[in-house]
Amino acid sequence: MLAAGGLSPVAERLGVPGETVRDWRLRFRERAEVIAVHFWRWARALDGALGEPVARGCPVADALEAIGVCTRAASLALGSRPAWSWVSRLTVGGLLVINTRPPWRVPE
């Protein structure tokens, strides 16, 4: 649920049309499960001591949790940087690309 004012204040702050923010949000929701799996893989590659993720009961919440755990693990293992920077790096800048099959690199 969005705070009062909806997407317009977010769009204004970012300097993009409201439709763009709406589309980003929709793509994130549609890909939440794939996003969660991707970031949990990276998190475990960066920190082998991590256990299995605990499902939150909501794919978006699971994806956000995975991103948070992963970006923290990346900062601890490789050097501190903002979470958005790690997300961009680990998805090659394509977290919300229009492609139906995101070309994200997977840790080996």
Give structural attributes.
108 residues; mainly alpha; 5 helices; globular
Count of domain modules: 1
Structural class: mainly alpha
The description of the largest β-sheet is: none
Uncertain stretches: none
Oligomeric state, counting identical vs distinct chains: single chain
Order of helices and strands, N to C?
Answer: HHHHH
Calculate the mean pLDDT score and round it: 88
Percent range for helical residues?
55-70%
Number of strands: 0
Helical segment count = 5
The first-to-last residue Cα distance is 36 Å
Could you characterize what this model shows?
The chain is mainly α and 108 residues long. The protein has one domain. The chain contains 5 helices and no strands. The longest helix is centred in the middle third of the chain and has 20 residues. The termini are far apart.
Outline the fold blueprint:
Blueprint: H1 8-14, H2 18-30, H3 32-46, H4 59-78, H5 83-90
Short description:
The protein has helices spanning 8-14, 18-30, 32-46, 59-78, 83-90. It is an all-alpha fold and 108 residues long.
